Every structure is written in C-alpha cells, then in structure tokens.
Fold:
Amino acid sequence: MYASLADILEQVPEDVLIALTDDEESGEVVETVVDRAIANAMALIDAHCGDRYAVPFNPVPDLVRLYAVDLAAYNLYSRRTHVPMPEVTAERQKQALAFLRLVQKGEASVGIAPATASDGESYGALVSGNERIFSRDKMGGL
Structure:
C-alpha cells in the first residue's frame, strides 16, 4: 500500500473519517473502506506512472505516498454527500492529478530513477518485420 490509515488520519480527523467510512453506523473507522480508497488511489498512480517506472513502487517514494494520501482522502469524501469536502482536499486532488499527468509525459519525477529495459522489462515498443529489400549492399553502394 502507498499509504496507511495513520497517513489518512494525519489529514482527515478521526470523527470525520468515521462519518466517511461507517456505513453500518458502528461508531468506528471502517478500515476496509479506507483500504479501498487507498487501493483506488494506488491504481490511479500506477496507471499514470507505469510507463516510466516499475510499479507498484517498493519502496514507496515520499511524493507517491503524499499524493496517495491526497487522492485517498478525496475518494473518501466523495463517498458522502452529507459530509462537506474541504476545499483543500479538492485542491490537493487536482494538484495530484496534474502532477501525475506530468509524470506520465516525462515532465516530472517521483524522486527515483525511471525504470529501464535493463531492469528486466522492456518499456519500449518492439517492432519486427520482413528483411529489408533495399540496403547499401544490395543497391551496389549507391
């Protein structure tokens, strides 16, 4: 996981987190709901970063953790219409998405070196085709 319940609690007060996750009205934070919000944030991060980095990240870069928390908090607030989403949460989600788009384009970094083909996987396209019809040798040095 790119974030934890403790990370979320640094951004969302516990009483609010209870209101966002407690579908059965048990009066407690429902960790499976938090985990699902984090997993959805991870999927979004991996979708944007997967072309440049080996995902899932392990260890998790600090920027990835930061944006995973922001996206997960947004996901949690989005579950409930009766709990007003703080403007800062909506703004952090927009900033996270903008950053991830830059990473996807290769214009920003998560703070680690991008994956290369020597990491055991190829991140480029493989092109194959028929043998060349014309070459310098076959054209008589033209």
Observations:
- Helices lie at 5-9, 14-21, 31-49, 62-78, 87-105.
- DSSP finds five helices and no strands in the chain.
- Residues 119-128 have pLDDT under 50 and may be disordered.
